[in-house]
Amino acid sequence: xTSIIRFVCxxxxxxxxxxxxxxxxxxxxxxxxPLDAKVTLEKIATTGGLPAAKKQLHEExxxxxxxxxxxxxxxxxxxxxxxSLSDAAAIKAKAREMADKL
Length: 102
What we know:
By secondary structure, the protein is mainly α. The protein is 74% helix and 0% strand. It is rod-shaped and about 95 Å long.
């Protein structure tokens, strides 16, 4: 009789230990929001401040190549023209033109 009780207790203990698990949930991958080239271009079109946003804009345009490769290539060509400009008015106009394409 005691061996049956002992067997039942061991089985209950094993069931409890195995059934509980470690209690941790699988980590959820958090994806950062996509960089928005249009917002950056509109900021450049307003301020004319290209040097501060130059690297960020390039990364945003490169990121666009995954979803719209043709548009990205066109905008990267425009980006090269934009970075060669030195006049603030010309920078603003080119940035506005690029923002309108998005």
